[in-house]
Protein backbone atom coordinates (compact mmCIF):
# COMPACT_ATOMS: atom_id res chain seq x y z
CA UNK A 1 0.00 0.00 0.00
CA UNK A 2 2.82 2.42 0.86
CA UNK A 3 4.47 1.78 -2.51
CA UNK A 4 1.20 2.41 -4.35
CA UNK A 5 0.68 5.65 -2.46
CA UNK A 6 4.21 6.79 -3.33
CA UNK A 7 3.53 6.18 -7.02
CA UNK A 8 0.24 8.08 -6.83
CA UNK A 9 1.90 11.02 -5.13
CA UNK A 10 4.34 11.53 -8.02
CA UNK A 11 1.73 13.41 -10.05
CA UNK A 12 0.02 15.16 -7.13
CA UNK A 13 0.23 18.97 -7.38
CA UNK A 14 2.24 18.81 -10.61
CA UNK A 15 -0.54 20.62 -12.47
CA UNK A 16 -2.78 23.56 -11.63
CA UNK A 17 -5.77 25.39 -13.06
CA UNK A 18 -4.74 28.92 -13.96
CA UNK A 19 -7.83 30.23 -15.76
CA UNK A 20 -11.53 29.53 -16.28
CA UNK A 21 -14.22 31.00 -18.49
CA UNK A 22 -17.60 30.39 -20.03
CA UNK A 23 -19.94 31.64 -22.73
CA UNK A 24 -23.56 32.57 -22.19
CA UNK A 25 -25.83 29.64 -21.35
CA UNK A 26 -29.29 29.26 -22.87
CA UNK A 27 -31.65 27.37 -25.13
CA UNK A 28 -30.98 27.70 -28.87
CA UNK A 29 -28.83 30.80 -28.65
CA UNK A 30 -28.50 30.96 -32.44
CA UNK A 31 -24.71 30.64 -32.33
CA UNK A 32 -22.37 27.89 -33.49
CA UNK A 33 -20.40 25.66 -31.15
CA UNK A 34 -17.17 27.19 -32.50
CA UNK A 35 -18.45 30.68 -31.68
CA UNK A 36 -19.41 29.65 -28.13
CA UNK A 37 -16.08 27.87 -27.63
CA UNK A 38 -14.26 31.02 -28.70
CA UNK A 39 -16.11 33.00 -26.02
CA UNK A 40 -15.21 30.49 -23.30
CA UNK A 41 -11.55 30.26 -24.35
CA UNK A 42 -11.19 34.03 -24.57
CA UNK A 43 -12.75 34.43 -21.12
CA UNK A 44 -10.40 31.81 -19.68
CA UNK A 45 -7.21 33.34 -21.10
CA UNK A 46 -8.30 36.80 -19.93
CA UNK A 47 -8.98 35.36 -16.47
CA UNK A 48 -5.48 33.86 -16.37
CA UNK A 49 -3.71 36.91 -17.76
CA UNK A 50 -2.61 34.96 -20.85
CA UNK A 51 -3.23 35.35 -24.56
CA UNK A 52 -4.70 32.94 -27.08
CA UNK A 53 -1.20 32.31 -28.38
CA UNK A 54 -0.14 30.83 -25.04
CA UNK A 55 -2.45 27.83 -25.54
CA UNK A 56 -0.49 24.92 -27.02
CA UNK A 57 -2.63 21.99 -25.91
CA UNK A 58 -6.34 21.16 -25.99
CA UNK A 59 -8.70 18.51 -24.64
CA UNK A 60 -12.31 18.43 -25.88
CA UNK A 61 -15.06 16.18 -24.54
CA UNK A 62 -17.96 16.92 -26.86
CA UNK A 63 -17.31 17.10 -30.58
CA UNK A 64 -19.35 17.30 -33.77
CA UNK A 65 -22.13 17.30 -34.82
CA UNK A 66 -23.51 19.21 -31.80
CA UNK A 67 -20.12 20.29 -30.47
CA UNK A 68 -16.80 21.51 -31.86
CA UNK A 69 -13.88 19.14 -32.49
CA UNK A 70 -10.43 19.99 -31.15
CA UNK A 71 -8.70 20.10 -34.54
CA UNK A 72 -11.50 22.22 -35.97
CA UNK A 73 -11.16 24.68 -33.09
CA UNK A 74 -7.39 24.89 -33.60
CA UNK A 75 -7.90 25.76 -37.27
CA UNK A 76 -10.84 28.12 -36.81
CA UNK A 77 -9.36 30.03 -33.87
CA UNK A 78 -5.79 30.16 -35.16
CA UNK A 79 -4.25 28.06 -32.39
CA UNK A 80 -0.90 26.33 -32.70
CA UNK A 81 -1.21 23.11 -30.70
CA UNK A 82 1.60 20.76 -29.74
CA UNK A 83 -0.87 18.17 -28.42
CA UNK A 84 -4.62 17.64 -28.44
CA UNK A 85 -7.06 14.96 -27.35
CA UNK A 86 -10.76 14.28 -27.73
CA UNK A 87 -13.09 11.81 -26.04
CA UNK A 88 -16.47 10.38 -26.88
CA UNK A 89 -19.33 12.83 -26.57
CA UNK A 90 -20.31 12.15 -22.98
CA UNK A 91 -20.07 14.27 -19.86
CA UNK A 92 -18.41 11.49 -17.93
CA UNK A 93 -15.08 12.22 -19.64
CA UNK A 94 -14.59 15.63 -18.05
CA UNK A 95 -12.31 14.20 -15.36
CA UNK A 96 -10.47 12.08 -17.91
CA UNK A 97 -9.69 15.17 -20.01
CA UNK A 98 -8.38 17.07 -17.01
CA UNK A 99 -6.22 14.12 -15.98
CA UNK A 100 -4.79 13.92 -19.51
CA UNK A 101 -4.07 17.65 -19.40
CA UNK A 102 -2.32 17.32 -16.04
CA UNK A 103 -0.11 14.50 -17.31
CA UNK A 104 0.60 16.41 -20.53
CA UNK A 105 1.87 19.56 -18.82
CA UNK A 106 3.75 17.57 -16.16
CA UNK A 107 5.53 15.64 -18.91
CA UNK A 108 6.42 18.82 -20.79
CA UNK A 109 4.39 17.91 -23.89
CA UNK A 110 2.50 21.22 -23.67
CA UNK A 111 2.60 24.29 -21.45
CA UNK A 112 -1.02 25.47 -21.31
CA UNK A 113 -3.86 23.06 -22.12
CA UNK A 114 -7.39 24.34 -22.78
CA UNK A 115 -9.95 21.78 -21.57
CA UNK A 116 -13.50 22.39 -22.74
CA UNK A 117 -16.77 21.45 -24.30
CA UNK A 118 -19.00 23.61 -26.48
CA UNK A 119 -22.45 22.61 -27.67
CA UNK A 120 -25.08 24.22 -29.89
CA UNK A 121 -28.49 22.83 -30.76
CA UNK A 122 -29.16 25.66 -33.19
CA UNK A 123 -30.45 24.17 -36.44
CA UNK A 124 -31.07 20.75 -34.86
CA UNK A 125 -34.70 19.87 -35.45
CA UNK A 126 -34.85 17.09 -32.89
CA UNK A 127 -32.33 15.93 -30.33
CA UNK A 128 -31.69 12.22 -30.61
CA UNK A 129 -30.24 10.65 -27.46
CA UNK A 130 -30.77 6.91 -27.27
CA UNK A 131 -32.37 4.55 -29.77
CA UNK A 132 -31.53 3.80 -33.36
CA UNK A 133 -30.78 7.39 -34.38
CA UNK A 134 -28.11 7.78 -31.73
CA UNK A 135 -24.88 6.21 -32.99
CA UNK A 136 -23.34 5.93 -29.55
CA UNK A 137 -26.54 5.02 -27.76
CA UNK A 138 -27.12 2.16 -30.20
CA UNK A 139 -23.79 0.49 -29.40
CA UNK A 140 -24.02 -3.10 -28.22
CA UNK A 141 -23.18 -3.96 -24.64
CA UNK A 142 -25.30 -1.29 -23.01
CA UNK A 143 -24.68 1.77 -25.15
CA UNK A 144 -22.99 4.97 -24.19
CA UNK A 145 -25.45 5.71 -21.37
CA UNK A 146 -26.50 2.17 -20.44
CA UNK A 147 -29.20 1.93 -23.10
CA UNK A 148 -30.46 -1.53 -24.00
CA UNK A 149 -33.27 -1.18 -26.56
CA UNK A 150 -34.09 -4.92 -26.48
CA UNK A 151 -35.43 -4.38 -22.96
CA UNK A 152 -37.02 -1.00 -23.65
CA UNK A 153 -34.06 0.96 -22.31
CA UNK A 154 -33.98 3.48 -25.14
CA UNK A 155 -32.72 6.60 -23.38
CA UNK A 156 -30.17 7.62 -20.73
CA UNK A 157 -32.99 8.47 -18.33
CA UNK A 158 -34.35 4.94 -18.53
CA UNK A 159 -31.15 3.51 -17.07
CA UNK A 160 -31.11 6.11 -14.31
CA UNK A 161 -34.77 5.40 -13.54
CA UNK A 162 -34.07 1.68 -13.30
CA UNK A 163 -31.30 2.35 -10.81
CA UNK A 164 -33.46 4.75 -8.78
CA UNK A 165 -36.38 2.32 -8.63
CA UNK A 166 -34.11 -0.46 -7.41
CA UNK A 167 -32.44 1.79 -4.84
CA UNK A 168 -35.79 2.91 -3.44
CA UNK A 169 -37.12 -0.65 -3.20
CA UNK A 170 -33.95 -1.92 -1.55
CA UNK A 171 -33.46 0.86 1.00
CA UNK A 172 -36.95 2.24 1.64
CA UNK A 173 -36.44 5.65 0.06
CA UNK A 174 -39.35 7.56 -1.48
CA UNK A 175 -40.02 10.22 -4.08
CA UNK A 176 -40.16 12.79 -1.28
CA UNK A 177 -36.64 11.77 -0.27
CA UNK A 178 -35.30 12.04 -3.83
CA UNK A 179 -36.87 15.48 -4.16
CA UNK A 180 -34.25 16.81 -1.74
CA UNK A 181 -31.64 16.63 -4.51
CA UNK A 182 -33.26 18.84 -7.18
CA UNK A 183 -34.70 21.13 -4.50
CA UNK A 184 -31.27 21.61 -2.88
CA UNK A 185 -29.48 22.19 -6.18
CA UNK A 186 -32.19 24.65 -7.22
CA UNK A 187 -31.63 26.46 -3.92
CA UNK A 188 -27.95 26.77 -4.87
CA UNK A 189 -28.96 28.08 -8.30
CA UNK A 190 -31.03 30.87 -6.72
CA UNK A 191 -27.68 32.27 -5.57
CA UNK A 192 -26.13 32.06 -9.06
CA UNK A 193 -26.86 34.85 -11.57
CA UNK A 194 -25.66 32.62 -14.45
CA UNK A 195 -28.14 29.81 -13.71
CA UNK A 196 -30.77 29.12 -16.35
CA UNK A 197 -33.29 28.16 -13.66
CA UNK A 198 -33.07 30.20 -10.47
CA UNK A 199 -36.61 30.30 -9.12
CA UNK A 200 -37.05 28.19 -5.94
CA UNK A 201 -38.39 24.64 -6.33
CA UNK A 202 -40.89 23.41 -3.73
CA UNK A 203 -41.73 19.87 -2.74
CA UNK A 204 -45.32 20.46 -3.88
CA UNK A 205 -44.15 21.54 -7.33
CA UNK A 206 -41.77 18.60 -7.58
CA UNK A 207 -44.42 16.01 -6.65
CA UNK A 208 -46.91 17.64 -9.01
CA UNK A 209 -44.59 17.42 -12.00
CA UNK A 210 -45.05 14.78 -14.68
CA UNK A 211 -43.07 11.57 -14.70
CA UNK A 212 -40.69 11.02 -17.60
CA UNK A 213 -39.44 7.55 -16.66
CA UNK A 214 -40.80 6.52 -13.28
CA UNK A 215 -39.81 7.27 -10.60
CA UNK A 216 -38.05 10.22 -12.25
CA UNK A 217 -39.97 13.43 -12.84
CA UNK A 218 -39.07 16.29 -15.14
CA UNK A 219 -37.18 18.06 -12.31
CA UNK A 220 -34.92 15.00 -11.97
CA UNK A 221 -33.61 15.62 -15.51
CA UNK A 222 -30.78 17.95 -16.51
CA UNK A 223 -31.11 20.93 -18.82
CA UNK A 224 -30.64 20.73 -22.60
CA UNK A 225 -28.98 23.95 -23.68
CA UNK A 226 -26.28 25.72 -25.66
CA UNK A 227 -23.04 26.97 -24.17
CA UNK A 228 -19.34 26.42 -23.57
CA UNK A 229 -16.96 26.38 -20.62
CA UNK A 230 -13.17 26.22 -20.54
CA UNK A 231 -10.53 25.35 -17.93
CA UNK A 232 -6.83 26.11 -18.50
CA UNK A 233 -4.28 23.68 -17.04
CA UNK A 234 -0.58 24.42 -16.67
CA UNK A 235 2.31 23.79 -14.27
CA UNK A 236 2.76 25.54 -10.91
CA UNK A 237 5.92 27.16 -12.28
CA UNK A 238 4.13 28.60 -15.31
CA UNK A 239 1.26 29.83 -13.12
CA UNK A 240 3.50 31.61 -10.61
CA UNK A 241 3.32 35.01 -12.31
CA UNK A 242 -0.20 34.81 -13.77
CA UNK A 243 -3.24 36.84 -12.80
CA UNK A 244 -5.03 34.32 -10.56
CA UNK A 245 -3.86 32.20 -7.63
CA UNK A 246 -3.29 28.62 -8.83
CA UNK A 247 -5.75 25.87 -7.92
CA UNK A 248 -3.89 22.58 -7.55
CA UNK A 249 -4.90 19.16 -8.87
CA UNK A 250 -3.87 17.15 -5.84
CA UNK A 251 -5.62 13.85 -6.55
CA UNK A 252 -6.82 11.90 -9.57
CA UNK A 253 -8.65 8.65 -10.16
CA UNK A 254 -9.35 7.25 -13.60
CA UNK A 255 -12.58 6.09 -15.20
CA UNK A 256 -13.12 2.32 -14.66
CA UNK A 257 -14.85 -0.13 -16.98
CA UNK A 258 -15.79 -3.79 -16.92
CA UNK A 259 -18.66 -6.10 -16.03
CA UNK A 260 -18.59 -4.81 -12.46
CA UNK A 261 -19.51 -1.29 -13.65
CA UNK A 262 -22.79 0.25 -14.81
CA UNK A 263 -22.71 3.91 -15.75
CA UNK A 264 -25.41 4.93 -13.26
CA UNK A 265 -24.40 2.76 -10.28
CA UNK A 266 -21.39 1.75 -8.23
CA UNK A 267 -19.98 -1.83 -8.33
CA UNK A 268 -22.09 -4.54 -6.76
CA UNK A 269 -25.41 -2.73 -7.24
CA UNK A 270 -26.65 -5.46 -9.56
CA UNK A 271 -28.07 -3.34 -12.39
CA UNK A 272 -27.80 -4.39 -16.06
CA UNK A 273 -24.65 -6.50 -16.48
CA UNK A 274 -23.45 -6.05 -12.91
CA UNK A 275 -23.21 -8.89 -10.43
CA UNK A 276 -24.89 -8.06 -7.13
CA UNK A 277 -22.37 -8.11 -4.29
CA UNK A 278 -21.78 -6.64 -0.86
CA UNK A 279 -19.38 -4.04 -2.28
CA UNK A 280 -18.68 -1.15 0.05
CA UNK A 281 -16.38 1.83 -0.50
CA UNK A 282 -12.83 1.17 0.63
CA UNK A 283 -9.75 3.38 0.56
CA UNK A 284 -9.92 5.51 -2.57
CA UNK A 285 -6.75 6.12 -4.62
CA UNK A 286 -7.80 9.74 -5.24
CA UNK A 287 -7.80 10.42 -1.50
CA UNK A 288 -4.46 8.70 -0.95
CA UNK A 289 -2.93 10.66 -3.81
CA UNK A 290 -4.15 13.96 -2.34
CA UNK A 291 -3.39 12.97 1.24
CA UNK A 292 -6.97 13.61 2.43
CA UNK A 293 -10.06 11.72 3.59
CA UNK A 294 -13.76 12.38 2.85
CA UNK A 295 -13.92 14.24 6.17
CA UNK A 296 -11.50 16.84 4.75
CA UNK A 297 -13.71 17.68 1.76
CA UNK A 298 -15.37 21.12 1.98
CA UNK A 299 -17.70 20.70 -1.02
CA UNK A 300 -18.52 17.90 -3.45
CA UNK A 301 -19.31 18.11 -7.14
CA UNK A 302 -20.70 15.37 -9.34
CA UNK A 303 -22.26 14.81 -12.75
CA UNK A 304 -25.97 15.32 -12.05
CA UNK A 305 -27.56 14.51 -15.39
CA UNK A 306 -30.28 12.84 -13.28
CA UNK A 307 -30.87 13.54 -9.62
CA UNK A 308 -30.38 9.96 -8.30
CA UNK A 309 -26.80 10.03 -9.62
CA UNK A 310 -26.01 12.44 -6.80
CA UNK A 311 -27.25 9.86 -4.28
CA UNK A 312 -25.06 7.02 -5.50
CA UNK A 313 -22.03 9.26 -6.01
CA UNK A 314 -22.18 10.36 -2.38
CA UNK A 315 -22.27 6.72 -1.31
CA UNK A 316 -19.52 5.66 -3.71
CA UNK A 317 -17.10 8.25 -2.34
CA UNK A 318 -17.75 7.41 1.29
CA UNK A 319 -19.65 10.45 2.52
CA UNK A 320 -22.24 8.15 4.01
CA UNK A 321 -22.89 4.42 4.23
CA UNK A 322 -24.51 2.28 1.55
CA UNK A 323 -28.28 2.72 1.76
CA UNK A 324 -28.04 5.86 3.89
CA UNK A 325 -27.84 8.69 1.38
CA UNK A 326 -31.58 9.35 1.19
CA UNK A 327 -31.35 10.39 4.83
CA UNK A 328 -27.99 12.15 4.32
CA UNK A 329 -29.39 14.54 1.68
CA UNK A 330 -32.37 15.61 3.81
CA UNK A 331 -32.76 18.86 5.76
CA UNK A 332 -30.62 21.02 3.47
CA UNK A 333 -27.40 19.14 4.17
CA UNK A 334 -26.19 19.43 0.54
CA UNK A 335 -27.23 23.06 0.05
CA UNK A 336 -24.87 26.00 0.28
CA UNK A 337 -24.55 26.53 4.02
CA UNK A 338 -25.15 22.83 4.73
CA UNK A 339 -22.77 20.22 6.06
CA UNK A 340 -21.55 19.16 2.59
CA UNK A 341 -22.53 21.58 -0.19
CA UNK A 342 -23.00 19.77 -3.52
CA UNK A 343 -22.88 21.41 -6.96
CA UNK A 344 -22.99 24.92 -5.57
CA UNK A 345 -23.63 26.42 -9.02
CA UNK A 346 -26.97 24.60 -9.26
CA UNK A 347 -25.52 21.76 -11.31
CA UNK A 348 -26.69 20.38 -14.62
CA UNK A 349 -30.17 20.28 -13.13
CA UNK A 350 -30.47 24.05 -12.69
CA UNK A 351 -27.44 26.04 -13.91
CA UNK A 352 -26.76 24.46 -17.32
CA UNK A 353 -25.51 21.26 -18.96
CA UNK A 354 -22.03 21.95 -20.31
CA UNK A 355 -20.81 18.34 -19.97
CA UNK A 356 -19.91 19.30 -16.36
CA UNK A 357 -17.25 21.79 -17.43
CA UNK A 358 -19.32 24.47 -15.72
CA UNK A 359 -18.85 22.43 -12.52
CA UNK A 360 -15.07 22.61 -12.90
CA UNK A 361 -15.28 26.37 -13.42
CA UNK A 362 -17.35 26.65 -10.23
CA UNK A 363 -14.90 24.51 -8.23
CA UNK A 364 -12.01 26.78 -9.19
CA UNK A 365 -13.94 29.92 -8.31
CA UNK A 366 -15.00 28.43 -4.97
CA UNK A 367 -11.38 27.76 -4.07
CA UNK A 368 -10.45 31.31 -5.07
CA UNK A 369 -13.28 32.68 -2.89
CA UNK A 370 -15.05 34.30 -5.88
CA UNK A 371 -18.60 32.92 -5.59
CA UNK A 372 -20.37 35.68 -3.70
CA UNK A 373 -23.60 34.61 -1.98
CA UNK A 374 -22.99 30.94 -2.70
CA UNK A 375 -19.40 30.93 -1.46
CA UNK A 376 -18.53 27.98 0.77
CA UNK A 377 -16.88 29.58 3.77
CA UNK A 378 -13.23 28.63 4.16
CA UNK A 379 -13.24 26.21 1.20
CA UNK A 380 -9.80 24.66 0.82
CA UNK A 381 -10.38 21.13 -0.58
CA UNK A 382 -13.10 20.19 -3.10
CA UNK A 383 -13.74 16.82 -4.68
CA UNK A 384 -15.13 16.06 -8.11
CA UNK A 385 -16.36 12.46 -8.04
CA UNK A 386 -18.83 10.58 -10.20
CA UNK A 387 -21.03 7.60 -9.56
CA UNK A 388 -19.14 5.80 -12.34
CA UNK A 389 -15.84 6.02 -10.53
CA UNK A 390 -13.60 8.85 -11.74
CA UNK A 391 -12.51 11.65 -9.44
CA UNK A 392 -10.36 14.75 -8.97
CA UNK A 393 -9.40 16.55 -5.80
CA UNK A 394 -8.67 20.25 -6.07
CA UNK A 395 -7.12 22.39 -3.36
CA UNK A 396 -5.87 25.92 -2.79
Question: What does the model show?
Answer:
- Helix content is 31%, strand content 14%.
- The chain has 396 residues and is of the alpha/beta class.
- It has a single domain, classed as 3-Layer(aba) Sandwich (Peroxisomal Thiolase, Chain A, domain 1).
- A hairpin with a 2-residue loop joins strand 5 (211-213) and strand 6.
- The two termini are 27 Å apart.
Q: On the 0-100 scale, what is the average pLDDT?
A: 92
What number of domains? 1
Class derived from helix and strand content: alpha/beta
Shape by Cα distribution? globular
**Beta-strand level of the residues, as a percent range?**
5-15%
- Count of runs of 4 or more consecutive helical residues: 14
Helix-strand string: HEHEHEHEHHHHEEEHEHEHHHHEE
- Unreliable stretches: none
Quote the distance from N terminus to C terminus: 27 Å
Give the strand line-up of the largest sheet. Answer: 3-2-4-7-1-8-11-10-9
What value does the Rg take, in angstroms?
20 Å
Helical proportion? 25-40%
Which superfamily, in CATH terms, is the homologous superfamily? Thiolase/Chalcone synthase
By DSSP, the count of extended strands is 11
Please provide a brief summary of the model.
The protein is an alpha/beta fold and 396 residues long. Helix content is 31%, strand content 14%.
